[in-house]
Amino acid sequence: MKRRFMSISIGFSLIMILIAGVFYIQSRRQSLEDLRSQQIVAVNELEQLALQGELEELRAQSSKLQDSLRASETNSEGNIEYLILGGIGVLYIAIVFAYLYFAVLRPFDKMKNFAKDVAQGNLEVPLDYERSNYFGDFTWAFESMRREILKSRSCEKEAIENNKTVIATLSHDIKTPVASIRAYAEGLEANMDRSVEKRAKYLHVIMKKCDEVAALTNDLFLHSISDMEKLKVEAERFELCGFLENAIGEISAEHEDVTLVLPESEIFVLADRNRLMQVCENLINNARKYAKTNIDISIAVQDTFARICFRDYGGGIPDEDMPFIFSKFYRGKNCGNEQGSGLGLYIVKYITQKQGGTVELRNHPDGLEAVVSVPVAES
User: What is the pTM of this model?
Assistant: First the structure.
């Protein structure tokens, strides 16, 4: 494009010079012809005056002829104005080209080179922009895009590091209960359980540590499938109230902090029992970990969905965290020193959506409410 503009400018300049030269030559030729005619008439008149012997008149006409010759020389020099006008035209074209170069071509070249750098993956070079030029808004948009891509790459890198950290943490946590299981198993092998109480204690610890290992491996499994997104959901028709009563009983076996309020009528839903159990476990464990209050669970039917409400009475989730709380590896500002991987709510939303339902969180002045909706089965 730069070469095209330069070619057009040079072409217009040559045309201006050619036109000015043609006008100059024609004007010069016309001036010479007029001067020659005037000189011939003046010479003839001088001859007639000389033949008639009118010397005084002859001197006067001779003086006029000299003045006329001097004026013709001045007029011939005045024909240079065409060349001056041609030069002014060329200068104007040069100024226009310079303006177009600095206002259009150079910013466009910057954007073109910037786009080439982005295409090659080089995002470290910023694009200087000025709102005053014609491409100001475009260069600002390109620069904003570069910053967003850098931010996205940084978040992706952080997510990968978090992924590695989660796997390393879970792997490390698995080693602790396995070591305890081995120690108590060696104690049993060495007949250190001399009394019934001691044997029962050893067996209780081993079973408890086995449960911890199962929970950690389940977390590791869920973490891996949350990356691969290959979680299988097999929906079936079952009665929700009885299912929740049994599920909450299992989850709250060692706690008395969960209150389940059931409707009088039965509610049949179309969902995956195991996955819905995981959703309940995640939401109840999250409420225990962060709210540390009693948890109320209720059921209601709205349109074609059964809505399961999990209500705690803690501090809730900060408003600025709400748009990102379901993101993978994201942990809100209210997590404090509690350990976690930032996968719980992500898994809840993922499993619920795979079953054709929805999940939403609502802050209340005295706590947080999580509402899980699953499709109601047809009668």
Answer: 0.47
